[in-house]
Amino acid sequence: MRPDDSHSIFDVFGDDYTREILALVHSEPMTAKAIADRCNSSLPTVYRRLTVLQDLDLVTPSIRFDEEKNRRNVYESNLQSVTFELEDGHIEVDVTYKRDMSDKFEEFWRELQ
Description:
Helix content is about 50%, strand content about 25%. The protein is built from five helices and four strands. The relative contact order is 0.15. The mean pLDDT is about 85.
């Protein structure tokens, strides 16, 4: 996480829809449509929140194929944990991700083949 992202992290956890989306894709990869159905929200709202989560590397899109071999974009959480710590009048934010960059590259490479 970049140092200037801490305010954005606060925004993410301050928004009901974004928290719900993050919790859903943390439990299982989901399409934007499935997220919208579960959140009882519009697709544009879901896509806006997913963009914020992707910008902070909290969610990653990937391509999956369903039973009929149709291509689907699914979203999954990269987040392992977030810790907020108050220290000497400052708020420290520590984000731990599920996967490191080498894992992401390896997944990307597998999808290309």
